[in-house]
Amino acid sequence: MNPLVEPAWLAARLQDSNTVILDATLPPVGVTPPVDTHSRYVARHIPGAIFFDIDQHSDHTTSLPHMLPTAEVFAQSMSALGIADSATIVIYEQEGVFSAPRARWMLRTFGAPNVYILNGGLNAWAAAGLPIESGEVHRPAATFHAALNRDAVKDFAQVQRMISEHKQILDARSAARFSGAAPEPRAGISSGHMPGATSVPFTELVEAGRLKSREDLRDLFASKHVDLQQPITTTCGSGVTAAVVALGLEIAGATDVTLYDGSWAEYAQRPEAVIEKG
């Protein structure tokens, strides 16, 4: 399955009641005051799109950001939003490539089979001359049966084993945070990286607000000496941009990709974690 769809493909399905469109835009990190992405959605969105708040649909019982909730909680929240697990789900963001892949990863990890990313997001939709609406959109309640695919998610103990076994770990944070030259945005957390990890800043996968082509992604991963035929785990600061790299790997042809949900926000706070710099 190609996870990317083009604006014309989605435009042809706007009247299909089984197609659910989600604006999954998270505010950019480090911008003060924070960008109100929900208000931007209300002002301007693809017709019929509903707002998918990643934070709202994450685990509220932990201090770690954006963690997956339980399957029961996710099923309840998706059903209330009007998202059926059998629906064709198309996710976009208001600009760039940042958080839509995380929303797709959440839905896929809980069992939704048909989840796509709108290539180029809202900007590409508008550039194609397609209609834009304003106002809040609500869908009638649906039924979402959530079942967590535990093979898609790594925890701290599993990552520790991967480090000891010299498995492939790709870090989506900036090169400066990876090396320890720049601070982490979360107070009290050291920058640096896991032993043996490879720096693959998610921004290197993006060009002109879209993911790069399959060929360019394959070339990028090859330049980082990533073996697409071997297991790979992605990580970042909080599990969001790790999903961008995971999506890039999927497009490039990797078949065994997992995501460390706790990512650096968890790893760097664990006293037994080894942090390297440079």
Automatic annotation (TrEMBL):
Q: Which GO terms describe its molecular function?
A: 3-mercaptopyruvate sulfurtransferase activity; thiosulfate-cyanide sulfurtransferase activity
Instruction: Name a GO CC annotation attached to this entry.
Output: cytoplasm
Q: Which reactions fall under this protein's catalytic activity?
A: 2-oxo-3-sulfanylpropanoate + [thioredoxin]-dithiol = [thioredoxin]-disulfide + hydrogen sulfide + pyruvate + H(+)
Q: Which Gene3D superfamilies match?
A: Rhodanese-like domain
Which InterPro entries does this entry report, sorted A to Z? Answer: Rhodanese-like_dom (IPR001763), Rhodanese-like_dom_sf (IPR036873), Thiosulphate_STrfase_CS (IPR001307), TST/MPST-like (IPR045078)
Keyword entries, A-Z: Cytoplasm, Pyruvate, Repeat, Transferase
Question: Which PROSITE patterns does its entry note?
Answer: RHODANESE_1, RHODANESE_2, RHODANESE_3
Q: Does the keyword Repeat apply?
A: yes
Checking SUPFAM superfamilies in the record gives: Rhodanese/Cell cycle control phosphatase
Boundaries of each Rhodanese domain copy?
A: 15-134, 163-276
Where in or outside the cell? Cytoplasm
Q: What PANTHER family is this protein classified in?
A: SULFURTRANSFERASE (PTHR11364:SF27), THIOSULFATE SULFERTANSFERASE (PTHR11364)
Q: What is this protein called?
A: Sulfurtransferase
Q: Which organism is it from?
A: Edaphobacter aggregans
